[in-house]
What does this fold into?
Amino acid sequence: MHMASSQLPAKEYVAFLIAISSFFGIFGAASSTVPSTVYIALLSNKSNSQEWRAFQLAINHVNSKGSLLPNTTIKAFEGEVNQDNILEYAKNISQVNIVSLLLFSKTTVTHKALSTMLRIPLVTTHIESSLPGGAKQFRYGVRMGPSSQDMAAAILGIITHYEWTSLLVLYDVRWRHLAHDFVSQLPPKMKVSKIALELDHHRNTEKLCEETKRKLTGFNDAHLEAFVLFLENHWVENIINQVHCSCSLKVEKPHNWLLVDPISSSDMEVQSSQVVVGFQPHKSSSHVTELLKTELLPSKKIKDSSFLIYDAVWTIAHALHTVISTGMWKNASYDGLDLSKNGETMLQYLKKVGNKEP
It folds into this structure.
């Protein structure tokens, strides 16, 4: 076949091959580039908290283990985000190698908007609502803690085991979607009542509003086999005692309580007639667990959220190790509000990290 028109002279052909080789050499180097520094942004605004200290300890421990990320240093990104400064914050974090956002408080619309806007994974340790369609609307979330489906299934299993048929669901207004979602999953023949636990926020206390107390007294003579409580765990003890007094003609009237938010401690002080069932994540007895306990002293109690934050940093580090070692890391050109070039890949490998020893 005559192909003279497509053939190159020998010298030009050699030059062309050198150019092609150089071209792919440049891109090959880019694909295997190792970042010298990356950042994790902790979005929870509690810089003096135990969780923040656990976050910093985890970063220090990752950096000191040279075999995981031998040529990369992880740093904490400083700064707080809220609804008023989200665009400024987004611009700031888009100028550095942010590999993940991290959160130990409840996820807000602002957090999700920031994650989606920049296509950066948001790793959370808090129980999250799982309303229909929620997962599709926010695809960059990775949970370290239990999902609302997990908690609802566990509570439903207890209710079924004891064959309880009459429940009172109490919920903080910020948990209303989770509470309604849970009630919708209960058997249709079950007798369920719901009350929103409105607190007296004007006086900056954790006292129930008088209107809420009035509603509770309406259940003085009701046959209630269990209370399901949708509320932050640090309020539980106080609220149980208030509800118990408001909802009982006699203080010793027994109640069974099922707590949705995982508890941080099992030494709750409530009336002896109250049976309280809560959940805690399993903590393995390892040298890492003991190391974290030792370094977080003089804290009397190590919060579960601190353990989860510590685990989250190691999970991010292992995912980053995979992204780099497989040559999938991409350098970014920081120009204005830039989308993450590694967010999708980090999200993919974050979901694949299994149980790994730090």
User: Anything to note?
Assistant: Strands lie at 37-42, 73-77, 98-103, 122-124, 141-143, 166-171, 191-196, 226-230, 255-259, 274-277. The chain has twelve helices and ten strands. The longest strand covers residues 37-42.
